[in-house]
Design goal:
The structure is a homodimer. Chain A contains 7 helices and 12 strands. The first copy, chain A, has about 230 residues and is an alpha+beta fold. In chain A, a hairpin with a 2-residue loop joins strand 11 and strand 12. The first copy, chain A, starts with a strand and ends with a helix. The structure holds a DNA duplex (30 and 30 nucleotides).
Chain lengths: ~230, ~230
DNA sequence: TTTTATAATTGATCCATATCATTTGAATAT
DNA sequence: ATATTCAAATGATATGGATCAATTATAAAA
């Protein structure tokens, strides 16, 4: 974990997440005092479930995952996140605890922001608050679809959903380097790693995808969407 | 559906949900102009998924469910809600569409509030906004646990969870009248009605619960919690 | 290079849960 | 009281995925 105070300040930052674009210059200068910039290596934990939630994270670059784990160390990947994006643990308005773990899947550039500074801006700038509410709302809606997917679709549909999400929401391209292991794909789709492996082999045999090492390309996007929709 | 403009106004209302308790008198008088009170009968739809989200609902009394349905009419019960509680479709900050259906499970007394009036208060009263954010946050946290439950626990654990939620969060008593059919319990737990039926019979045979018609009593709360925790 | 550890693949088997089919029960209407 | 409808219970069977086990790749370390 390399701590580099970025030269510039928030005012000039061109990797601001949407909410921060709603802030006034003076507010950006204010928040600039309460943040520091860190680069995480692949695999590093940014914050850990069940620890005190003292920061919000503005990811400027890279891909990360949020995971929920129980006492038996069974994991569930809640979401995949691509910078620029603001990651706020909901616990900051509930019990001041992180309710999931945030982990870098690639190198991640992020600003660690003091939670009190964040909350102050939420109270003082209603544009900012509204944008934050809007982002929470988008996630809530995604959650409905995701819960539905995990409970009502079977293997093929779930893996298709995962691949489509990676392609469309994270990498914006049909071809990408898979940032998740088979184990993690399992934790994301609610399957075992063996099942994920089998489905991917099946997809490849059916000419739906191409796999070259860790590079995956969706060859037939329409078919993939159909599989996702039909569960 | 009986439309009765309640005699009193919001200022005097003793069934306010938490967020409204944060409003000033003048704000309560303001919102009072943009709401009307309705009583729904059991089974009636309060608002329907995919229709324009023009209101937020303040449930003062009764129990309701939110359901998410796909194009094949497969349903998932997202949550159970007990008054007093504010139900806001997240779509009001995204695409002005309801993303789930809200249905009365018992007789429900509710105030239908204009969404623009609600949004105005969110912008103008940061206590109100903060309380709303806090409630969204609680739901987000519950969602993690629920998604985990539905993907990682098996039948007994899921049904135990459902019964515990009804007992602890909805009725605040070990004995209650089951507001859900077996089919609905299935839609809530991600199981078929047949499986739910079998599990309940098993629970009764094991002296975990008592069933008298539609009345269910949890006889062994500790055991039920253990089953929930061990999946 | 060889060793070691970790991830991925693949096959064989088992089991949890869905599906299908029938019966029973309860509520509502005739 | 009888018919009708819908919810619930229960048994028999099928199957989607998990689990277990073995093999092969891949990558890091000695």
């Amino acid at each position: 974990m390399i701590n580099i105070h970025q030269n510039g300040n928030c005012l000039e930052c061109d990797k601001k997440c949407s909410a921060f674009k709603r802030l006034l210059s003076e507010e950006l200068n204010y928040i600039n005092q309460y943040r520091f910039h860190i680069t995480y290596k692949k695999g590093e934990v940014i914050f850990k479930q069940n620890t005190p939630a003292s920061n919000v994270i503005s990811i400027s670059r890279g891909v990360a995952k949020t995971t929920f784990e129980d006492k038996f160390n069974k994991n569930l990947i809640l979401s995949l996140i691509k910078g620029p994006s603001l990651v706020v643990g909901p616990g900051i308005y509930v019990d001041n605890i992180y309710h999931f773990t945030l982990t870098a899947l690639t190198e991640v550039h992020a600003c660690i922001i003091d939670v009190l500074a964040f909350k102050k801006l939420i109270r003082e700038n209603s544009d900012f608050a509204e944008q934050y509410i809007s982002e929470m709302s988008v996630r809530a809606i995604r959650n409905y679809q995701r819960t539905f997917c995990l409970t009502h679709k079977q293997m093929h549909g779930r893996v298709a959903d995962a691949l489509l999400n990676l392609s469309q929401n994270i990498f914006n391209a049909p071809e990408f380097e898979m940032p998740l292991t088979r184990q993690e794909l399992g934790e994301y789709t609610g399957l075992t790693k063996e099942s994920v492996s089998r489905i991917l082999t099946k997809f490849r045999d059916d000419q739906l995808i191409q796999m070259d090492g860790n590079i995956i390309e969706i060859l037939n996007m329409d078919k993939m969407i159909t599989i996702s929709e039909n569960g």
